[in-house]
Amino acid sequence: MANNMKYFIGNWKMFGVPKSIKIISKINSYIKKHKFNKKYKVIIAPPFTLLETFSKKFKNTKISISAQNCYQKDYFSSDTGSISPYMIKNLGTKFVIIGHSDNRDQGDTDKIIKKKINIALKNNLKVIFCIGENKLQKQKRKTLAVLKKQIQGSLERKINKDNIVVAYEPIWSIGTGIVPNPNDLRKTVNYIKDEFRNIFKTKKTPPVLYGGSVDSQTIEIFLDISEIDGFLIGGASKSSKNFIDIIKNYYK
Ligand code: PGA
Questions:
Q1: Average pLDDT over residues 95-114
Q2: Would the CB of 234 count as within 6 Å of ligand 1?
Q3: What pTM, to 2 d.p., does this model score?
Q4: pLDDT single digits (tens) 40-49
């Protein structure tokens, strides 16, 4: 995954029914005609219930489909209600979000996240790995320490980092309309990249995205931060217009 490529990833969370496919079809039609469409990649993460149809429908298009989570065991097991990376991969789905703060809230520890990442990669899924500090940690100036712990606690040294995309999502920014100060954000993104260089002893780092209250207005704040390799978009990804406006404003 080349680092000059930008990512626009839509995380639908608990949203969507079969007819919501129209939203992605509209985004796909826009991308097909957009003159900068070689510069970025669009990924949409609908709920599990829609993965199969959406993955098939958008198979040979500019849009990839991602799962929003997976269970930390491979193949099949007796865990009621759980879905393994193997099952996701079998639907034709290419990506999976792991470590979202919603799931960390529901009990995902770094150790569980590590298992999920390893199994997802083993099943040839690409991983969108979410990290981020909460409000109290930010107030206590612990942001970088928190991110370091999350990265070191969740990634094996030997994993295929070419199949990882990192999404930095400060929890205090998700769904609040509040976004980080651009200087802080630049520093944080650079810190994450440095951390990867240290861990993997390599010059190349995975793409590092920003997520949290990204919409067609706030995107303007991030235009000058070239270090950011893209965006993970929640609320504004549920409407084709809002999502397209983000891309439009980014490339205008
Ligand atoms: P938001 O959500 O864009 O609605 O803030 C982002 C996310 O949770 O991934």
A1: 98
A2: yes
A3: 0.97
A4: 999 999 999 9
Average pLDDT over residues 146-150: 98
Task: Kindly state if the Cβ of 45 falls inside 6 Å of ligand 1.
Answer: no
> Does the structural domain 6-251 have CATH classification 3.20.20.70?
yes
Q: Enumerate the β-bridge partners of residue 45.
A: 11
Give the integer Cα–Cα distance in Å for 10 and 147.
22
3-state SS of the chain is: CCCCCEEEEEECCCCCCHHHHHHHHHHHHHHHHCCCCCCEEEEEECCHHHHHHHHHHCCCCCEEEEECCCCCCCCCCCCCCCCCHHHHHCCCCCEEEECCHHHHHCCCCHHHHHHHHHHHHHCCCEEEEEECCCHHHHHCCCHHHHHHHHHHHHCCCCCCHHHEEEEECCHHHCCCCCCCCHHHHHHHHHHHHHHHHHHHCCCCCCCEEEECCCCCCCHHHHCCCCCCCEEEECHHHCCHHHHHHHHHHHHC
* Mean pLDDT along residues 157-167: 91
**β-sheet bridge partners, residue 210:** 168, 231
**Where are the chain's structural domains?**
6-251
Distance of CA 201 from the midpoint of ligand 1 (Å) = 31
CA atoms within 13 A on the CB side of 14: 2
pLDDT at res. 3? 54
Nearest CA to ligand 1 atom 9: 234
Asked whether the predicted pLDDT for residue 177 surpasses 50, the reply is: yes
